[in-house]
Amino acid sequence: MNIVNSKLYYFLEKMTNFFLLNLIWLLFSLPIITLFPATAAMYAVIRDWVQGKDSGVIQPFFQYFKVNFKHSFAYGILWGICLFIFYIDLAIIAEFESTANLLMTSLLFVIGLLVAFNTAFIIPVMVHFKLSFWGHIKHAFLFSIMYFPTTLLCLFIIVGMVILVLYLPALLFVIFSIGSYVVFRLCYRTFEKVGKV
Q1: pLDDT at res. 140
Q2: Spatial contact of 21 and 61, defined as CB atoms under 8 Å apart
């Protein structure tokens, strides 16, 4: 039996690729401002895997990091601004009376959910479709509403990855690439249903 063609070898090779991808993603995410470009590069590599392109890990990651940098960095800034605004708004709302507090908190919660829904699809849409910056945001939002169960499942996986790392820090070196693979698979299934935008 040729060990190179065995299922064990195939499994170990895949796990090595996930480990390498996760490691390079961690390194490029260390300066927090490059988190979104690094994540976009990771998803682009995963997209190649899903489409059957076995082009490696490191070289494609560098290439996709450069190609997707502009839009993903801008989206990261926009996302950070949204978080900052939510934080400020919550601090201001806390000063209001209970009735006004409840209404404003509810409104902020709805807006926060819409941003979260968009977050579930934005990176997969960005690496899969060639659109303008606002086109990515618009289509990510539309996908998140049209395929709401998929959106919830993606958000559950993203939150689950963070919780798992908090309880089992050793998973930090492999969980994000594996979780992102599952998220992209789910999103890619919706892309195939709709076809090219």
Answers
A1: 93
A2: yes
How many other CB atoms sit within 10 Å of the CB of residue 139? Answer: 21
Q: Which residue pairs, CB below 8 angstroms and at least 24 apart, start in 105-112?
A: 111/86, 112/86
Distance (Å, whole) CA 144 – CA 114: 9
Q: Which tokens sit at 78?
A: 């926009």
Only one residue has tokens 């988190």, namely 35
Query: Which portions of the chain are predicted below pLDDT 70?
Result: 1-5, 94, 96-101, 195-197
E strand or H helix at 62? helix 58-67
pLDDT at 40: 95
Q: Check if the beta carbon of residue 120 is closer than 8 Å to that of residue 158.
A: yes
In SS3 terms, 106-157 reads as HHHHHHHHHHHHHHHHHHHHHHHCCCCHHHHHHHHHHHHHHCHHHHHHHHHH
pLDDT score, position 27: 94
Record the tokens describing residue 83, joined without a space. Answer: 């978080």
Structure tokens at 75: 């989206």
Per-residue model confidence (pLDDT) at position 195? 66
CA 24 to chain centroid: 16
Give how far the C-alpha of residue 25 lies from the chain's centroid of Cα atoms, to the nearest Å.
12
Confidence (pLDDT) at 197: 47
In this structure, are residues 78 and 86 in contact, taking their beta carbons and an 8 Å threshold? no
